[in-house]
Amino acid sequence: MQPSPTEAPAIRRGASEIRSRIQEAAGLSLDRLPMLQLIFDRLATGCGDALKHRVASTIFYALSGVTSGRFGDFLDGYDNNAVVGIFHAPGWDGHILVGLDRDFIFTMVEVLFGSDGSEPPVDEERAFSAIELRVAQMVFEQVGKALETSFGLVSQTAFRLERTETRMEFAIIGRHSNNALQAKFLFQGLSRSGEMFLVIPQALLNPLRASLAKVLTGESTARDPRWSQQIAEQVQKAEVTLRAVLEERHLTLGEIAGLKVGQVIGLDATPTTRIKLEGNDRPLFWAHAGQAQGAYVLRIDEVIAQDKDNLHGLAG
């Protein structure tokens, strides 16, 4: 017997719910989701880049670990020791949580306000000040933008900061027993460090499993245009020493030992002889010598063909 048209959607919804429950019970196998590592690495880079123009000292952002477990277990360790931001991801129809521990906030405040690190770090259990909470909100806003860019590799959604909390019992985005994924990030500045953590309910990642399981290789790997531009700019600023060679003579060790001050060494070169320009002992150009405004100059006539070995030697 075939289901009626009104029964078919209900059957499909029921099958989808059963599949979702099975996936939820099974948990996440991080080894089978290689894109998560790439996404979180890009998130760390994006957060660091967003803050570099705001601080005078050097800062460091890096992914320190990714684990799966229970949502409540992740938050219990940060009670009264962190500020969390609850973000809504409309494209996923759900919420995620980003937290900054006490050391992160204290270090960020000192970095932003120009401390040189000479004062001892803050080591006291107290409520966060209004300035510290405002700094945390600024960081959350930057993280939201970095999240959107990073997860754009697999899913297009915004991450909108809805509210901040300092007490973990109010940071509710799901049942404490629900499966979730936590990524931890190390933040360093002024020889001090803190931790940022990201908690994503597994139910939000289940629909993205297929995309997260992909492996980007070769030319398919996403390129970061800012990184490519920075590399190109730094390479172009590298200083290279050029040497103009008019003529080369091969002498024996005995002939060199017999050279005396004032001795004249004859050359076969003429005013029309081409001069070889070298860099790192590799031939680069043929040129002719001349004069301009009272100084000797070289006019490049021809590029000397390079093989792969020569090119690697020049770069080295």
TrEMBL record:
In the bilayer, the protein is annotated as: Peripheral membrane protein
Keywords per UniProt: Bacterial flagellum, Cell inner membrane, Cell membrane, Cell projection, Chemotaxis, Cilium, Flagellar rotation, Flagellum, Membrane
- Cellular compartments annotated: Bacterial flagellum basal body; Cell inner membrane
Query: What residue stretches are annotated with the Flagellar motor switch protein FliN-like C-terminal domain?
Result: 233-304
Q: Which SUPFAM superfamilies match?
A: CheC-like (SSF103039), Surface presentation of antigens (SPOA) (SSF101801)
Q: Which Pfam families match?
A: FliM (PF02154), FliMN_C (PF01052)
The UniProt function text for this chain reads:
FliM is one of three proteins (FliG, FliN, FliM) that forms the rotor-mounted switch complex (C ring), located at the base of the basal body. This complex interacts with the CheY and CheZ chemotaxis proteins, in addition to contacting components of the motor that determine the direction of flagellar rotation.
Q: Which family does it belong to?
A: Belongs to the FliM family.
Please identify the protein, giving its name as recorded.
Flagellar motor switch protein FliM
Supply the source organism for this entry.
Methylobacterium komagatae
